[in-house]
Structure formats: C-alpha cells, structure tokens
Design goal:
single chain; alpha/beta; Beta Polymerase, domain 2; Beta Polymerase, domain 3; 7-stranded parallel β-sheet; 5-stranded mixed β-sheet
Amino acid sequence: MPANNEDIAQLFENMATLLEMKGDSVFKIRAYQRAARTIEHLSLPLSQAVAEDADLKKIPGIGKAISDKIQELLKTGKVSAYDRLVAELPKGVLDLMAIPGVGPKTAMLLTQELGLDSVDQVEAAIHDGRVAALPRMGTKAADTLLRHIQAISLRGDRTPIGDALSLAEDVIASLRAECPALGSLFPAGSLRRWEETIGDIDLIGTTSEPQQVGQALASLPVVREVLVSGPKKTSVVVEPGMQIDLRIGEDASFGAMLQYFTGSQQHNIRLRDYANHLGLSLNEYGITDLNTGQVQSFPDEASFYARLGLPYIPPELRGGIWELEAALEDRLPTLVETKDLRGDLHLHSLWSDGKDTIETMVEAVAAQGYEYMAMTDHSSGRGIANGLSNERLTEQIQLLRSMDGKYPITILCGSEVDIRADGTLDYPDDLLSELDVVVASVHSAMGQDSATMTRRIIKAMHHPAVTIIGHLSTRLLGHREPTEFDLEQVLQAARETGTALEINASPERLDLKDTHAYRARELGVPLVINTDSHHHSSIANRRFGVAVARRAWCEPKHILNTLPRDQFLRFIHTPKPERIKVFDETLLQEAQT
C-alpha cells in the first residue's frame, strides 16, 4: 500500500529534525517543516495526485526538491536522502525527540554521551543519575525530563480536544472568579483553531493586574508545578501533565497578540511573507512599516487583517495552505455555525446503551430549538450491548409514532444499524423500510484489510434504507486507531448512492476528521453533523462537530441538517438513486441566493 499523507508528512518532519541535528541550513529545515505541516492538512491523497500526474509544485510549500522526494517515496517506497541522514546520525535519536522538552541538541547529547536510544533507557538513566551528570543538564533538568516521560505514559504526547477544552474553560472560569480586573481572556494556539488534539494550552489575556492573574493561575488546585511566573507570562503544569501558558498583553495590541499566538505557524509564515511584500513586518505587538519604522497596534484581529488588505480569516481556516489566496480573491467561505443546525439524527436512549429515557432526550433536543430529530438506538449486532431485537425495534417505532405531535419537534424513527463483516445490515429489509433514518456503522471486525473494509462500507451504502454512514473510520482519539479503507472509493460511492456521511461530534471520535470532511465537501458528498448523544447533556457537543466542519471549509449548504424541516424530509423520503439530485438542488439554490 502506498504511503499516505500522514506518513509523508512525518518523513519530512523527521528530515527537518535530522538536518537540525546536523546543523544544516535553517532555510532548508524550515522548508521541510512547512512541507510537513502542509501535507498533513491536505484533503487529497498525494498518492492519487501523483498517480494522476498532478503538478505538486502548485501546492503551497511544495517546491521541486520536495516534489521529487514525494514521487520517489510513492514510486520506490523510500527516499534516499532521508536514508542517508538516518545512517549519519546515532540510532534512536528521533525516538528521544518524542519526549517533550527534548530538542535536537539534547537528543544528540543523550545518544552520543550515554548511548541511549529509547525513552525507557532515558528514564533509567535519569533514575541512576547519569542524565543529571551530563554537561548543561543537572538535577533540575533531569527531574523535568522524568516528569515529561511520566506524563507521556499517562496521556500520550497530545491531548484530545474534548479534554483540553474542558480544562481550559475550567481554568478561565476560575481566573475570572479570582481576578475582577481580568479583561479579555481567550484560548489561542491549536485549541482556538479547534485541532483534534492539543499539545499545550495557550491562554491570552488583558488585565490591569497582571501579577494577580499570574499568581491566581499558579495557585489553582490543579497545578502541580510552576515553570515560569511573571507579569507577562506564567507557565504551569497541571494534572495529568499538561502545560498551560498564560500571556498577558495590552488592550491596544491585543488583536496582534491573539493573532500571533493563535497561529498556525505556517499561516503566520505565509502572512509574514505577504506582509513583507507590502513593506510591512508582523509580530505579536502589531504591524511595523519597514520604511518609516512606525508600529501600529490593533485591539482586535479584524483590524489587524484589515491593515493587510484582508478580510478576517477565521481561526479554523488558518492552516497555511489555501486561506491566504482565498482571502485575497474574496473566496473565503461563510462557515457553518452551531446556530445553523436544525436537527440531530444520531441519538441513543435507555432502550440500548443510552443513559436517559426517550422522553428526556426528546425534550433536550427540542430545547435546542431544533425542528427535527431521529432516535437511533443500536441494533442487536454483537458489537453493542442491549441492542434492540426485531421485536423491540418494532415496539419502539410504535412508541415514537405515538409521540410525534406531542412535542414541538418532528420525531423520526431511526436506528444505528451494525454493518456486518460482509457488508449486510443487522435488520431484515422489511423492518428497515419502516424507519425514517438509518445510520449504518461499523462496530465489529475492525481489523479487516483495506480492500475488504472498503467493499463492506460501499455495499452498505448501496442498501436503499441506509441514510447515513456513522463514524466512518471508527476511531477513538488516543484509544483506538482508525480502520483502513480507501477513502476516495468510499467518498465516490457516497456521492453515487446519495448516502450522507456523518461528522460525529462526540469529542472522542470527531469522525469524519477534518481532512476527510474537506474532501467529501469537494466531491459533493452530503454531510451531517450528529452528536451521537448517549445522555441529554451531550447534545452540547455539537460545537465539536461544527468545528470539524468549519476546518473542512463547510458552509451551511454542505450540511444536510441545516436544511429546514420540509426540505430535509424531502431529501430522506426521496428514493436513494434520486437523492443526490435533491442535495445538488439545495446547493444550487444557496449559490444563487
């Protein structure tokens, strides 16, 4: 199987690291880093682009040298330049870079001086005192490394956004309660860009009492270590090992500071290069006119971008690939928002593995102001406990039909039906035909090879009763790797059959991921943002699904459950072969208005 985009991005990231260890040109190092960031956010598989003889140099950050290496990797399975770099440097040096705080110099020190080539060996060398005895290390640095290693074992090197955002919001609420003088305070970095996993939490704020705010952060019960404490920056480590960096700025320059620390790095690099062509220089304090030396401050991001002649670019789009060109050409999308959603089509109750009654779930969804919903308890497949038998599903359908009209919301009968290993569904056709919405999902035999899994999913898509494919890759962030399948084939089949694909808003899933949703949008595949709620409180998780859709450049017209009730019902009640035409009509209507 050819290397995927993630594999290629990691290879170039490794090349940048190895070149840095060798002390090579900083420009070459940054070129590989930029290529890695760009490739990991591409929606189109590079393997397909190369097979179609596409010009990779048209992709921002991909020059001739990197293009040649991509083609070499995809055609031969290796990159000779990378192999030479690996051979020139000590064994295991890249593995040590997985430890937070270990940069190229420290990794080289540990490998060359102590012969260490694994994280376990580093931990043992810390315990027996060898690391502390190294030049430029000492006991404090060794202890810090040990804490980082222990944190990795607890949570991995990045934290799923659901956990990180909850922590950030709790900290912000605590700081506001403790510090009346606190003004603006926002997450920045990858958290503000809504990336699916987060490294450190960056908080950016303003206050007339910066020392008080820093001390309040350092004094929070969740803090286990204070790394830096000062009026402009306070850094702490909280349980279970995540770092929070709080930066305090001035009101007058807050916009520039928030933009700078929101990133991404590649977005800021491209923005800086663009500004330089205008005779301007950017930093966290504002924009400097290179001719006069005058620095202009900006209280908000909109005025910062306006000074560059650009519209405001939403944080979710700041990946450093296409957003600058889109902004310059006035092509930035009007991104979908939470308020645009009109229904939720993936909900569970006590009838299967949910925690609330059907009535409680209906009331909770209706309280959101939604126009429609589908109750989709699990089928009786072996993947899920307490799935509904044929008889229990029939009983539930009768109950739901009797409830419709008693609430200010249309209640649709549905089911999350297991896609069996051979691609067949878990209920007979006559029972499936009684349902308004069928969310077909894989819950078993996840280890199938790519070709088998691809055939399995596509077979389910061809079933006339299947409305939506749920959580396509089955991944659980930090706990379960995604299944293997051919994304392009699956997306093409979804388009051809008029099958919608779910953006599962459950923060441990976020499945489709952003690049998959981006590609689905490009191909005209209907998308649905569902919460997969098993408790009434989880309906609030829709914001995570909306964030994925925004990172995929989705507008409301790309999301089926932004449709008004009558239009949505028209879509699901249209026979599948004609369904995509209904979807395309809505896209056309939106474009015309």
